[in-house]
UniProtKB/TrEMBL annotation:
InterPro entries the record matches: SAM-dependent_MTases_sf, TrmK
Gene Ontology terms describing biological process: methylation
Signal peptide: none
Organism: Cohnella endophytica
Entry superkingdom: Bacteria
Name of the molecule in the record: SAM-dependent methyltransferase
Length: 272
């Protein structure tokens, strides 16, 4: 995450970008916290300065951001609270070390792979605060398959980019988790206006976002329609025999997205 550092008027701490501020709000009070892909450790330093967390690990796979994070932590006098580590994904953690993990600023497929490779390093992690910038469906599918249940989703527009933010909590009882996710991803959500939403589109659009669509939600999916229509146009000029079939699949996607948008309640003005 490349969020510029600025200081509050009193010089007492960091001021975060609106996206990082929103993520920070979702970190439980008193959490033992890990920020994966931490860059300059802005989020853990801010949370520590606000007395919101009891402990933090700031992890990054690259040496430059790790050095910058160490400098930031040292200048803030927080070395006893924030541990900066270099490593790939959640490899920087020990099992049971933290209860809350934030990952942001990367694609959803990579995010899901990082979570998948974590193994027992996710032991004790009951809250995940995530912001994938593409392929959000890959993250939602990972959460469902590992007994996490979304309790918050939002879209936030900053500098012309619409970001997806989500928080999920671990449900230890697997049958309860399964039941909660079945209810959350109810494909009859828009009935009777729309008999059924495909599971694919439900995971792409977000079950909580569909229940409370904002102006940003409508803009995001109108943009997605335009992207897919450009792909269809490119496929129409392709000579490969499979191109026509692929174009039909994309056309069906666009048709379904338009149908869902037409059945949603009127967009509420966004506070973002």
């Amino acid at each position: 995450m490349k969020d510029e550092k600025t200081m509050n008027d009193n010089g007492a701490g960091l001021k975060l970008s609106r996206r990082l501020s929103a993520l920070a709000e979702w970190v439980p009070q008193g959490a033992r916290f890990a920020d994966i892909g931490t860059d300059h450790a802005l989020l853990p330093v801010y949370l520590a300065q606000q007395n919101r967390i009891s402990y933090a690990v700031a992890g990054d796979v690259h040496e430059g951001p790790v050095d910058a994070a160490k400098k930031q932590v040292a200048e803030a006098g927080l070395a006893d609270i924030v541990s900066v580590r270099m490593g790939d994904g959640l490899a920087v953690l020990s099992p049971g070390e933290v209860d809350t993990v934030t990952i942001a600023g990367m694609g959803g497929s990579l995010m899901a792979r990082i979570l998948d490779q974590a193994g027992n390093r996710l032991d004790g992690v009951t809250t995940l605060v995530l912001s994938p910038h593409v392929a959000e469906d890959a993250v939602r599918r990972w959460l469902v398959s590992h007994h996490y249940v979304l309790d918050r989703e939002m879209l936030l527009e900053e500098d012309g980019v619409i970001y997806t933010l989500m928080r999920a909590v671990l449900v230890h009882d697997q049958s309860e988790a399964r039941s909660s996710n079945e209810s959350l991803y109810d494909q009859n959500l828009l009935a009777p206006a729309l008999e059924r939403i495909s599971s694919v589109l439900m995971h792409e659009m977000g079950p909580l976002l569909l229940r409370n669509p904002s102006e940003a939600f409508h803009r995001k999916w109108e943009q997605e329609i335009l992207k897919r229509e450009r792909v269809i146009l490119q496929l129409s000029h392709a000579t490969a025999p499979e191109a026509a079939e692929k174009a039909r699949e994309w056309e069906e996607d666009v048709r379904e997205i338009r149908e869902v948008l037409s059945c949603l309640p009127a967009a509420k003005p966004s506070s973002n």
